[in-house]
Amino acid sequence: MGFIKRQLLKVIEWEDSSTETLVYRYPMSDRDEIMNGCQLIVRPSQVAMLVSSGQICDVYGEGEHKLTTNNMPIITKLASWKYGFDSPFKAEVYYVNTKQFINQKWGTASKVSIRDNDFGIVRVGARGVYSYKIEDAPVFMREIFGTNRNYSTESLREYFKSIVVSGFSDAIGEIKIPILDIPAKYIELSEIIKEKMQGTFTKIGMKLVNLVIENVSLPEEVEKAIDQRSSLGALGGKLNEFTQYQTAQAIRDAANNPNGGGIAEMGVGFGAGMAMGNAMMNAMNPQQNAQQQAVSATADTAGVCLNCKQPLTPGAKFCANCGTPVQTKKFCPNCGTQVDSSAKFCTNCGKAL
């Protein structure tokens, strides 16, 4: 019995005092060795693994396990203990936390550019939360953990955040949801992102349990445009009423201006509002404006003879006073362009005359 005295472990267990620990390596010094009959306790939402000679040997689920040659087949075979496993052996014990880790936050560091039918190219940002769990402890150990003493959610936060943001950027670019419809599609978009990212989590022995989009933010200019469109919609989409609304807003702002110049600025604002309203209405009715211009120009030039300046008979082709042919200007009723009196088609827009 002249051997160096060893500390023989009787009970191996881990009481998780942290809510963020993924993997915990049981502290064993160089003198610590596991003896035949040692008790290994694995609590709910835990998995214990024995690692010997750099190799994952035996994996134990929830419950109390007596470490003997009967339930340690891989280590027994590797160590070649053929005589009742009477000698102690060296091994490392790792506990893996298999519970669900919730409320993990994610968000876009910079906004993502997407193409929208209503607003063109728009840059959007997003944020939310997700949850995950370790589903295959040996795979996670090999791919992520390695031989660290412990591993927490903080160690993987930035890595998982980049994966989720990448999935969001890919999904929102593919499904092509109009920006105005995105708030009503948070659940559907979340499921698409989750499905896209599941394969990436599976490769490292994990499962993406849930993902939630809390908010998708738009540029300030787009939000203002949406607010203006909502204001117009509240007025029934009538341009005249919208112009009146804008004018009233300008009058109110001028009256509340504490820096003075209220009436003068109000007049300028009122005039600008009216001019803008008229311009918008004219832009929305180009054909009607062209027809009015054509009629006005014809009336101005067809009333007097260009030779003797005497009034002409309506519809006459020659002057009743001097016999000079009546020269009338001809305008396209569609675009208002002046054309030759004998032209059959407009030279500007091609409309039949």
Task: Describe the fold and architecture.
By secondary structure, the protein is of the alpha+beta class. It has eight helices and 14 strands. The chain has helices at residues 73-79, 137-145, 153-175, 186-203, 220-234, 239-255, 262-284, 286-301; strands spanning 7-12, 21-25, 32-42, 46-52, 55-60, 63-67, 92-97, 101-107, 112-116, 120-134, 150-152, 206-217, 330-331, 338-339. The strands form four sheets. The chain has a five-stranded antiparallel sheet. Strands 8, 9, 10 and 12 form a four-stranded antiparallel sheet that branches. It has a three-stranded mixed sheet with strand order 1-3-6, with no helix packed on it. α3 packs across α4 (186-203). It is rod-shaped, with a radius of gyration of 41 Å. Mean pLDDT is 75; it is low at 1-7, 81-86 and 293-302.
- Give the neighbour order of strands across the main sheet: 5-4-7-2-11
**Largest sheet entry:** 5 strands, antiparallel
Give me the secondary-structure category: alpha+beta
* Terminal residue distance: 121 Å
Give the overall form: rod-shaped
Order of helices and strands: EEEEEEHEEEEHEHHEHHHHEE
Share of β-strand residues: 25-35%
Query: How many individual β-strands?
Result: 14
Indicate the percent of residues in helices: 25-40%
Number of helices: 8
- Uncertain runs: 1-7, 81-86, 293-302
Rounded mean pLDDT score: 75
Radius of gyration, in Å, reads 41 Å
Oligomer: single chain
